Amino acid sequence: MTEAGAQALTVSELTAYVRDLLDRDEVLQDVWVMGEISNFTHHSSGHMYFSLKDAGSRIRAVMFASRNRKLIFRPEEGMKVVARGRVAVFDRDGTYQLYVEEMQPEGVGSLYLAFLQTRDRLQKEGLFDRERKRPLPAFPRVVGVITSTEGAAIRDIATTLRRRYPLARVAIFPALVQGPGAPASLAAALAAACAYGELDVIIIGRGGGSPEELWAFNDEALARAIAAAPVPVVSAVGHETDFTIADYVADVRAPTPTAAAELVAPHVLELRRRVEEARRAMVDALVRRVQGDRQRLEHLLGRPGLRRPEQWIQWRRQTVDGLHTRLGQAAWKSVYRRKETLIRLTDILGRHSPKEQIQRAQNRLEAQKQKLQFAAWTGWQRAVHRFERQVDKLEALSPLAVMRRGWSLVYRPDRRELVRDISQLAPGDNVHVRLTGGWADCQVWGIEEESEDGGGATTAKGGIAPKRGQGGTRGTGQF
């Protein structure tokens, strides 16, 4: 090995040397870096991988899950941030990167940015929609209050409820309202209130304070728990100028805890006024009812039957007797008319006995049957006679019948063309003659034409003779 090769470092050794240099540099072990987030990835493991860049350079950065869980805002692509961490070498790639311990937005408070991000996200999901807001009960029996037992808010709410509506019972669910553990404490108290089962409405809130002190009411998990509560929720956080995520998602927002108690509980003086109005309306209705009944009673007492009851009863008795007599007469007349009707119908039924009607119908049916059979037989005989006559006519016109009377048919040698005139033949032509019982192959050895006046032959040139050397069923002789 050469001297230069003996002094060379391996890649791993060089990387380890650079790592040691960076690790010994106190500035690089706790440094603040400002830049724009790019190539941001939130891995399924919880770790965040991204780069910080400016106009002239770029550095890779990683923020492990144990650290980024403390962020109150969500890093996004293109966001300008200030990150604190340490610079070290990533051995596998031999590159240096920033291991981020904490991070906050540049130019805007991280709390306010987290507030805006949570508000916009829940608003897109519809948790602020007016359609999902529920009305408060008119007369709550049990009011749940979620707040700190050490603050002024619980005293203001309890005092207002006792003064305005002592009929309501207050159920208190203590919770932390500021500090790191406040969001989880408020969510747990709300879960306990929802499981209580007797509440008609819930008040959640606290007195005034700085944005940081009110921050627990901007927690996203708490907001979703308020939206899912089974009863209406009134948010009363801080003063009238303070707005939190809980105010947006609650069914009703009250500017102060005292105002929340006034919203959920009607004033007892107002209830007394309404009860008095209802009492007066009921008395007026009863007076009108009594006056109406009295008028109807006076009207009834003015009838003749109530002025002279004995005379009215006697007159009614006479009326009943007359109706009884008329009813008896009408019943007798009705029975008599029905009896006459029954006798008449019996006579008619005797003349129109179903048995006789059936017998007559059967006789008519039998007569029609015989007529139909006779007509069918006669029609069949006529059809047979017509068929036989047609057969005779066809038989008389049959070429076979004509040949049996001595006639024959003469064809050309191909047996397709029938010879119809003597002009179609010439001496020496071969012909086929169709006779009764078979064919004869013949040759024309002479032609004899008839005169135009139908007399004898004008010329005699012989006749038709069978071919020599051919016999059998084709016949012999001359024609």
TrEMBL record:
Entry's localization field: Cytoplasm
Superkingdom, natural source: Bacteria
Occurrences of domain Exonuclease VII large subunit C-terminal (ranges): 127-442
GO biological process, alphabetically ordered: DNA catabolic process
This protein's GO CC annotations: cytoplasm; exodeoxyribonuclease VII complex
GO MF: exodeoxyribonuclease VII activity; nucleic acid binding
Residues covered by the OB-fold nucleic acid binding domain: 9-104
Main location: cytoplasm
CDD domains recorded: ExoVII_LU_OBF
Bias (Gly residues): 469-479
Region feature (Disordered): 450-479
UniProt entry keywords in alphabetical sequence: Cytoplasm, Exonuclease, Hydrolase, Nuclease
EC number: 3.1.11.6
Catalytically driven reaction(s): Exonucleolytic cleavage in either 5'- to 3'- or 3'- to 5'-direction to yield nucleoside 5'-phosphates
Assembly and interaction partners: Heterooligomer composed of large and small subunits.
PANTHER family membership: EXODEOXYRIBONUCLEASE 7 LARGE SUBUNIT (PTHR30008)
Stated role: Bidirectionally degrades single-stranded DNA into large acid-insoluble oligonucleotides, which are then degraded further into small acid-soluble oligonucleotides.
Protein family (similarity comment): Belongs to the XseA family.
Classification via HAMAP family: Exonuc_7_L
Official protein name in the record: Exodeoxyribonuclease 7 large subunit
Organism: Kyrpidia spormannii
